[in-house]
Design a protein that fits this description.
This protein is an alpha/beta fold. It has helices spanning 9-25, 39-42, 59-66, 125-134, 147-155, 166-171, 205-212, 217-239, 286-293, and strands at residues 2-6, 32-36, 72-76, 88-93, 101-104, 119-122, 139-142, 161-165, 180-181, 196-201, 248-255, 258-267, 272-281. It contains 9 helices and 13 strands. Strands 2-1-3-10-4 form a 5-stranded mixed sheet, sandwiched between helices. The protein has a 5-stranded mixed sheet with strand order 7-6-8-5-9, with helices on both faces. A 3-stranded antiparallel sheet has the order 11-12-13.
Length: 311
């Protein structure tokens, strides 16, 4: 089983983790990593949105599968576009790790302690938008690169603080660098953050069967719900003339056989926070959940922005 992966230390850890799980589930299976550098790794001086979006981290891995150079690919699901290329499928998702964002600093213990005009680095439009909403007095700066590169910039004194995913730091044995885990109610994580996914060709029965042994249904349910909402938000943005693409954030609550999907979209330019809520039975197909979401107030309803926060 050949696993396509990016070359970053975190990506190699994730692919190696999947490889070990496959060996445990299938003792007779030979597993090898096929490491490659993606366009998302090569372009570090511009926001991803300016050069093709987060899919730049996965396209080359998918091409390796399509060309027969790899059998499966391992991704951070927050980097995977909500709609896959034709003929591809997510064959398995692993149990979700810590989904929250981490504030990392050498000088300050909490994000709230940063003084006015302090420099804080991140490459994520989602994190940038929330930072500007919570702390408009901070200097939010673009910070691209892998985890080690970003930490090095902080350690050099180029930044007063940076934001990273807790899951990535924990997987690399760097949990000690987490200064503060940001509360998910006030600083909403990315869609799919903390989830490792295994992608393969939909027609590859052997690859799908091998990956199935690693699959976590509970994580898959929540991830599918988040990704449906992300697709729906894409449609909303496209339907509003002149509106720039905004970060999409999702909170969820699952209880008593019902699923509450909370869509929160931040307008990075106008710093507005809006939300939509859809409730449906657990186990609904994505199209059914999307239909439910269409029946509730959303971005642009009532001639303006709604500010509805779920209880």
């Amino acid at each position: 089983m050949r696993i396509a992966t990016r070359r970053s230390r975190l990506a190699l850890w994730q692919a190696g983790h999947v490889a070990e799980l496959l060996r445990q589930a299938h003792p007779d299976m030979t597993v090898e990593l096929v490491a490659m550098t993606t366009q998302g790794d090569r372009v570090r001086d511009r926001p991803l949105a300016d050069v093709g979006g987060k899919g730049l981290f996965v396209k080359e891995l998918e091409l390796a599968i399509a060309e027969g150079r790899a059998d499966i690919a391992v991704h951070s699901m927050k980097d995977v576009p909500s709609e896959l290329p034709p003929g591809m499928t997510i064959a398995a998702v692993l149990p979700r790790a810590e989904p929250r964002d981490a504030f990392v600093s050498r000088k300050y213990q909490r994000l709230a302690e940063l003084p006015a005009r302090a420099r804080i680095g991140t490459s994520s439009p989602r994190r940038q938008a929330q930072l500007r909403q919570l702390r408009s007095d901070l200097a939010v700066e673009l910070l691209r690169g892998n985890v080690d590169t970003r930490l090095a910039r902080l350690d050099e004194g180029a930044m007063d603080g940076i934001l990273l995913a807790c899951a990535g730091l924990e997987r690399l044995g760097l949990a000690g660098r987490i200064t503060e885990m940001l509360d998910a109610e006030s600083f909403v994580p990315a869609v799919g953050q903390g989830v490792i996914g295994v992608e393969c060709a939909a027609a590859d029965a052997e690859g799908r069967a091998a990956a199935a042994a690693l699959h976590d249904p509970a994580t898959a349910l929540r991830l599918a719900a988040e990704r449906v909402i992300e697709i729906d938000a894409d449609a909303i943005e496209l339907s509003l003339p002149g509106r720039e693409r905004s970060p999409v954030l999702v909170r969820q609550h699952v209880a008593h056989g019902e699923r509450e999907l909370v869509q929160i979209v931040l307008d990075a330019k106008q710093l507005q926070r809006v939300a939509a809520v859809a409730v449906g039975e657990v186990g609904l197909q994505p199209s059914q959940s999307r239909d439910l979401a269409g029946d509730v107030p959303r971005v642009g309803d009532h001639g303006g922005q709604r500010d509805h926060q779920p209880e």
